[in-house]
């Protein structure tokens, strides 16, 4: 009996996939923790395009989504809720805190400025260290930003006609500059910063108009 010793079929050769789709990488890097397989979440347009609401959290989430399209709706809603809670704990208008964070980083937890400021609240490393927080942790940063702004507003409540603008000036230029100029310093950057925050605040409250039922 003859036994065939023929060799079996050769194993197919494969070429490793080394193709990198840059837009996909960028989207993944900028979408915080949205998993790649959950693209369906980008279709949650009701959160972004719904009717006027009395919920500060929802109004803030909508503004976040219009400002930073890289955030998933579920993340925007979670960050908005944390912002409202942190603001109310400091007796601040939630829209004020949200507008400040939008101006600082567009609510990007990974934001890095050319000057070295980090995270949603754009804390410098030494400021974050003094506060005992991780500036890349969005929830710690939101609470810390609320605490800092709240302390400024309380300190300036009887010192200046508008403690809110003085607090924003201190957040942007430092409390030393506010003290030196007895109010908002004459820095073009700081004055533009304040105007931008106030404008963002107005946009958020624009989503909160009561529904006319008559």
Can you put this structure into words, describing what you see?
The protein is mainly α. The chain has a single domain (23-206), classed as Lysozyme (Orthogonal Bundle). 55% of the residues lie in helices and 0% in strands. The protein has ten helices and no strands. It has helices at residues 22-30, 45-49, 56-67, 73-89, 94-105, 125-131, 138-156, 163-173, 175-181, 188-206. Mean pLDDT is 84; it is low at 1-8, 27-32 and 34-43.
Helix and strand layout, with pairings?
Elements: H1 22-30, H2 45-49, H3 56-67, H4 73-89, H5 94-105, H6 125-131, H7 138-156, H8 163-173, H9 175-181, H10 188-206
Helix pairs in contact: 3-4, 3-5, 3-10, 4-5, 4-7, 5-10, 7-8, 8-9, 8-10
């Amino acid at each position: 009996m003859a036994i065939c010793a023929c060799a079996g079929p050769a194993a197919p050769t494969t070429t490793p996939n080394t193709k990198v789709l840059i837009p996909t990488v960028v989207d993944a890097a900028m979408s915080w923790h949205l998993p790649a397989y959950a693209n369906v979440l980008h279709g949650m347009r009701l959160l972004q395009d719904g009717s006027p609401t009395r919920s500060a959290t929802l109004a803030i989430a909508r503004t976040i989504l219009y400002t930073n399209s890289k955030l998933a709706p579920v993340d925007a809603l979670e960050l908005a809720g944390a912002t409202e809670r942190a603001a109310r704990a400091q007796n601040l208008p939630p829209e004020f805190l949200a507008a400040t964070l939008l101006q600082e980083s567009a609510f990007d937890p990974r934001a890095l400025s050319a000057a070295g400021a980090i995270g949603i609240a754009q804390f410098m490393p030494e400021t974050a260290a003094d506060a005992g927080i991780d500036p890349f942790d969005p929830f710690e940063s939101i609470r810390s930003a609320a605490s800092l702004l709240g302390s400024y507003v309380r300190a300036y409540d009887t010192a200046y006609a508008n403690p809110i603008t003085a607090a924003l000036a201190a957040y942007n230029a430092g409390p030393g500059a506010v003290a030196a100029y007895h109010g908002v310093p004459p820095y073009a950057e700081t004055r533009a910063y304040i105007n931008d925050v106030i404008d963002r605040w107005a946009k958020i409250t624009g989503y909160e108009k009561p529904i006319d039922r008559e």
